[in-house]
Design goal:
464 residues, alpha+beta, 3 domains, ten-stranded mixed sheet, 6 helices, 17% helix, disordered N terminus
Amino acid sequence: MKIFIILFIVTTFLYSCNKDDEKKVEMGEKNGVCFEDKSCNSGLECYDDNICRVIQNGHEGGACLANGACDNGLVCNSDMICIKDPCLTVVCEDYKHCVLGVCKPLEGRCDSSEDCEVGYWCAAGNLCSVPGVCEPVNPCKEINRTVCVPDGDSYSCECEEGFIDFQSSCKMPLSSYQFHQAGFFYNIDIPSNTASDRCCFDFNNDGELDNKLGTLLKALSSITQINYDALLNNDIERDRFGYLIEYRDAWDTDNIVAPIYESKDSDNIFENNISGEGNIFAKKSSFKSDGEIFISESKETLNGIKNGEKIYFESDYTDFLKIPFFAESITLELTMYNFKLEGDLYRDDFGIWIKNGKLGGKVPMMRLLDAYNSYYIDKCECLNLPEGLFYLDEENVAQCRVVENNECPTNSECSSVIEYCGMISASLVPDVDTDNDNINDSLSFGMRFETAPVSITGVYSLEK
């Protein structure tokens, strides 16, 4: 009887303890009730009997030592936990494989030389290769070539297809070049630089717009009755001279490369050239050559920037501008340094054009006097001055030579120039410095212009 009572008491006690334990286990806890994995606490999973138990190794969220220790569709991450394989939704290139959702090159393949073993480099085809004579650095680029052709322990340098060897560099031949949109210069205006007519650039950084030569030309106009603006525009209209500016990617980038070409009208219809319907040749003489081979690079190319609808070009040196100061068949050619150009850039269905354009530069005194002398030597042989009328003295001041044997008709232009020579030379006082030696040696010059959109129809050559 005592034994029965003792067993009853122990059984009752144990049952009571079990009941207390069951009351303490809540849903989601270990050994607690669950209906799906997410209803179990961290580190637990819901088993088929709807009880939360510790995740088994190899299950999602369970411990692992290597990828092979995880169930199908799972991978072992760097924390040694089985996770869903992120590579199931990733597509890699042929030479790569997916590792934890990231495409990485296979052994021996590469995206860069850092993917290869020491002593190898990433060659064409994404292959880790032993360096050769042409790789990994192309030695031909140092001499402006493009293609390195290995030949044992040596190599040769060649040009890519479509390019030619020009003065030890690979260049596109002019015959293969496709022109871009272009503009035709017209409506030239040389300002007097008076208070009401100032233009165009401040070359000596004194806050004033400089145009010494333009001012001189306007003064000469009142004396000689020669309208230089009319002469310039008349010569452009008659196709005696003209210029094109080619816009390369002018609207797609803020940095503009703009070659300048001398022009030749294709149909002699000037109205077409300023209405957006012009087809104009670029003169062959505008392009670089070795005397026989011409390439697609202009002798004068401006590099500028576009800021909104404004364009700005500046060049240390250019000699493209030839200005016919005097009428008929003889022109007075100028060479300009520190050339600048700016204006408002527009575009429509016809093309690209410039409004409110300004261009200018510095004309060295020696070049200017050479131009004057060249003009008068050709036009005024009757002066009997084969060395020219003007010269620079030791102090770099313009002077007039004495005319001892004048055979020119009275009141002719050639006789008049003797009368005005002193006044002209006195006016030719340089106002800007070209060679940065703090000594003024050039005359500032500027003019206004516009361009009209035209198509460059090809290359014009007198030899055609």
